[in-house]
Amino acid sequence: MSTRAAPFDELDRKIVAALMENARASFNEIGATIGLSGTAVKRRVDRLCANGVITGFTATVRPSALGWRTEAFVEVYCDSAAPPRRMGEVVRNYPEIVAAMTVTGGADALLHVRAADVQHFEEVLERIRAEPFVRKTISHLVLSHLQTMGSEAGAGRPASGNAAHHR
Amino acid sequence: MSTRAAPFDELDRKIVAALMENARASFNEIGATIGLSGTAVKRRVDRLCANGVITGFTATVRPSALGWRTEAFVEVYCDSAAPPRRMGEVVRNYPEIVAAMTVTGGADALLHVRAADVQHFEEVLERIRAEPFVRKTISHLVLSHLQTMGSEAGAGRPASGNAAHHR
DNA sequence: TATGAAAATAGCTGAAT
DNA sequence: ATTCAGCTATTTTCATA
């Protein structure tokens, strides 16, 4: 857990923020903006990766450019005895399911689905509904994004943050 | 009419896939795995960025490491006359809202919310519910992720894939 | 335990082919 | 698309506080 040895200070926060804004920025460049040498920045990035704070670096892509033009969230209601673990295994077989989680509220699970178009989505949905432990589904097709920002889960700390310790 | 502008061939697909897996990979490294020179890879990446296929490069972070330990999806039901645009403006004032979209189904909008803890989430939810045009909300707290994969919205092409307009 | 400076290696990028 | 050349960045080593 996080009680030990995670001196996540202000400099780390700024480095993470810089890398979230541009993961291909050079260490020297990042260092220049936060007042550190490139060497020091690299060391801290290496440590943040080793600690699991940074889990990777990825290109963000406009899904429609790759032909994924339809997006939906699907609430899944399971048979009462269906373990979430089963869901996890099944979900792995659907390349269209980009995220899946168990949730509170009416449904047992929520699926984030991408498909080429509504026909494709309908086909995927039929396959999901045919899974043995699925009792019913409620779909929410995404019409438009109100927030296209890249600031997802921002690098700022939460308002009532019990996050960052320091020395 | 396939000669112009954005062919997006198999090599581009592989480059995008490589950058989604590791956005800090060197051009030479990517080139080596797909049989191309680093220079050629760079030119293609530049073009993919200019075309808007690639929209950026970002570090992926474990939210809990930054103190965001609670996650939820909130269905928002609006007053009948509330334009989605209003939602967009409001949403911008909540750093806790990491994504917002209009959707079909019962609700008018779906919000992806991150908070430090459930207390923080409750506070955010109360603020959202106090917005003038919000009639009711249904919250789904995320319990666990069934798919922690980094393969979100995969670089593979959809089954019936036709891709790539731009500008 | 941290940093910064220097040196060697590796990568980036433009021009020519 | 490749090769080459000049420049920049990364990464290791070493010295310092």
Topology as H/E string of chain A?
HHHEEHEEHE
In total, the number of domains of chain A comes to: 2
Q: Percent of residues of chain A in beta strands?
A: 25-35%
| Main sheet record of chain A | 4 strands, antiparallel
**Percentage of residues in helical conformation of chain A:** 25-40%
> Which two protein chains have the largest interface (Cβ within 8 Å of the partner's Cβ), and how many residues from each?
A-B, 81 and 82 residues
Q: If you compute it from the alpha carbons, what radius of gyration of chain A comes out, rounded to the nearest whole angstrom?
A: 20 Å
How far do the termini of chain A sit from each other? 18 Å
Mean of pLDDT of chain A: 88
Classification by helices and strands of chain A: alpha+beta
Strand numbers in spatial order across the main sheet of chain A? 3-4-2-5
CATH superfamily grouping of the largest domain in chain A: Lrp/AsnC effector binding domain/regulation of amino acid metabolism (RAM) domain
Question: What is the 3D shape of chain A?
Answer: elongated
Oligomer: homodimer
Spans of chain A of 5+ residues with little confidence (pLDDT < 50)?
A: 159-167
- Number of H/I helices of chain A: 5
